[in-house]
Amino acid sequence: MSRLRRRLGGALLLATLVACGYLLGWSNLFTVREISIAQNDPQIARELRAQLDAPPSPIRIGAPIARVDKREITLRLRELIWVDQVSIRRNLITGVVSISVEPRKAIGRLAESVSQLEPIRPGEIRFLGADLESFAIPQAAVDRAARAGRVDWRDLPTISLGADTKELRGDIATLLTTITQMGARARSITALSDAQISSAIEFKGRKLDISWGSVKELDLKSEVLLRLLDMKQNRAALRFDLSAPLSPVVSNR
Question: What predicted TM-score, i.e. pTM, was given to this entire model?
């Protein structure tokens, strides 16, 4: 008797799963009723929607919501080179599929003089990403990313590298973090080598040129710089050489 009950219970469970699968994946009970693009800029929202509507569309009104392929939607939107992360949420009750995107994360604009980088096409701009990889995108895509994200790529510091190595890129990222922590903004960074790194920064309305040497002892170097800037005799100073932080050089030219 108990064996029969177990068989009946198993059959009932299987039938329930099949019925639920049919209702979710094949019936018209749970379908896509609305596709919501979470984007403040109407032009960006229209571009994202047009990308999704291009045939073969990965999502359409009236399709079973459980069969919405998140991977296909993500791949389609990431064909837009400025798009990085794609978030997709499905509400079975309301039938709303909510889609939002995050632009790629760039930390600086690479100068065209970097010799070891591949040449870029006219109208493109090369950036250094937060992952320390470089990428080039058209000017129009830069404008879209600036409107879609929280960081304006058009206002990023210009980065000039003497050699295109991952180590030197990492030094740049470390220095940018330190400059931000100081409460300053980097306008440009030049790294001829790992021992010849300098930057132009803005700090409390002052435009300054800083020679850091290497990124070693950056905490000490930034502390020395802040103390030098507090000194009355340095109020007109424009250049600071912190290569040797215990023997800094200050200049008004």
Answer: 0.73
